[in-house]
Design goal:
This protein is mainly alpha-helical and 418 residues long. The chain has helices at 9-23, 45-65, 74-98, 102-107, 109-121, 148-166, 168-173, 179-193, 198-214, 219-238, 241-251, 262-274, 299-335, 339-363, 381-408, and strands spanning 129-132, 135-140, 145-147. It has one domain. α2 (45-65) runs antiparallel to α3 (74-98) and α13 (299-335) packs antiparallel against α14. The two termini are 38 Å apart. 46% of the residues are buried. It is a multi-pass membrane protein.
Length: 418
């Protein structure tokens, strides 16, 4: 079956099960201008091609980065199998969300927000959370560990999009219109910092701010948020000595190449030795017991070593297409007054683009170590499933916006002023 023929009966059946499960909870009245169409899904081909290409590269790089781990590489094969399973689960979940009208999420926005905050709060219950390297970020379910912040962040982006869509006039004209989002950002940031998870705090806060700004929230409110966010970021850095050490070490990692600068030094060696064309797939030297977290936070360095500068340019191009098409989809939704869809597509695209640049910046020594993975590439089941869920939501926005544009006779979003 062609990837573009998503209006077949098979895809409809997958989505119908999830749609019927939520239908009794939701108000059947549409929230935005986009039509509720269930007779098939129209897909942004460029977005989907970039997404599938990144997923393929990710599986190949996880296999390469874990090559030789454990006895006879058994540990590496185990990680690859688990990552492949996460990709499979994520793709199924993505298709289900593609078939689910966004009005359901708008109707359930407060429940989604509550669940997101509870995911972060449950980490402080003894016996439930799992701690790794001093950070308590995982919920131990026995058979699997979930990184709570990945799903909580997506939930809060969905809530923010629904809030902006429903209360857009108040957000654009009144300072108090942003009262609820500010309270949510502060509460979520506090819970994340207590884990501690400074990287996700920055990404979440910046993403929610960008969503409000793109939706034309009142200027005075935006300025106050910038001031508050800057103050919170400074306090967050200086509240822990290890963050101060990271901030100082990244500027000159070779001053302490076997201490605080060890990880970055080896990442820079990997990137530098990649040259223009790289050593070749599987030929990275730094991943062999030199570069810590080679399959997670620093997988980009392994990729650069094996594929070189031209490979990095190609990877940046794929991420660029993904984010660019996400912004185009948001613009389509704005053109038909589908404000929840516009905010959602802008938020998810901003999140993916920002996290990608931060991860690459950390690997290249441009930013302090943040502990953020490379979206769709790095090993991590929770991050993979959450990201694919987000991709499903963007594709759903495209479907609803494109159908609404067709019904309104709009052929080009440039016909409608921003």
């Amino acid at each position: 079956m062609s990837l573009w023929q998503l209006n077949s009966r098979g895809w409809q059946w997958v989505g119908r099960a999830g749609q019927q499960g939520l239908q009794w909870l939701a108000d059947r009245r549409p929230i935005d201008a986009a039509a509720d169409v269930t007779s098939g899904v129209s897909v942004d081909r460029s977005f989907l091609i970039a997404l599938l290409a990144l997923l393929s590269i990710g599986l190949v790089m996880v296999a390469s980065a874990t090559l030789g781990m454990g006895d006879s590489g058994a540990a590496g094969r185990g990680l690859l199998i688990r990552q492949s399973g996460a990709v499979g689960v994520g793709l199924v979940a993505m298709v289900v969300l593609m078939m689910m009208p966004l009005r359901h999420f708008v109707a359930l926005r407060n429940l989604i927000l509550l669940a997101s905050l509870l995911l972060l709060a449950v980490l402080f219950i003894p016996g439930v959370a799992h701690t790794v390297n001093g950070a308590t970020r995982w919920i131990d379910l026995g058979f699997v560990r979930l990184q709570a912040s990945e799903f909580a962040r997506l939930g809060m982006i969905v809530w923010m999009a629904a809030y902006l869509g429903v209360h857009l006039d108040k957000v654009q004209t009144r300072i108090r219109g942003m009262g609820a989002p500010v309270a949510v950002i502060m509460l979520a940031s506090t819970l994340l910092l207590l884990q501690p998870d400074y990287g996700n705090t920055v990404v979440l806060g910046a993403t929610l701010f960008a969503m409000a700004w793109l939706m034309r929230a009142q200027l005075q409110t935006m300025l106050m948020l910038i001031a508050a966010g800057g103050a919170l970021a400074i306090v967050g850095v200086f509240s822990a000595q290890y963050r101060v050490d990271r901030l100082l070490s990244f500027s000159n990692p070779f001053a302490d190449p076997f201490g605080d600068g060890y990880q970055l030094v080896n990442a820079l060696i990997a990137i530098g030795t990649g040259g223009l064309f790289g050593r070749g797939l599987g030929e990275s030297v730094q991943k062999l017991a030199y570069l810590p977290e080679a399959h997670t936070d620093f997988i980009f360095a392994v990729y650069a070593e094996e594929f070189g500068l031209f490979g990095v340019i190609a990877l940046l191009g794929l991420y660029g297409v993904l984010v660019w098409r996400g912004f185009v989809i948001a613009r389509m939704a704005w053109a038909v007054k589908h404000y929840t869809g516009a905010a959602l597509a802008w938020g998810i695209s901003t999140w993916v683009g920002m996290q990608t640049l931060i991860n690459m910046g950390v690997n290249m020594g441009l930013l302090p170590t943040k502990g953020l993975t490379l979206p769709l590439i790095s090993y991590g089941g929770s991050a993979m499933v959450a990201t694919l869920l987000a991709m499903g939501l963007v594709l759903r926005v495209h479907h609803e916006a494109s159908r609404a544009m067709a019904e309104a006779g709009i052929e080009d979003v440039r016909e409608v002023s921003r």
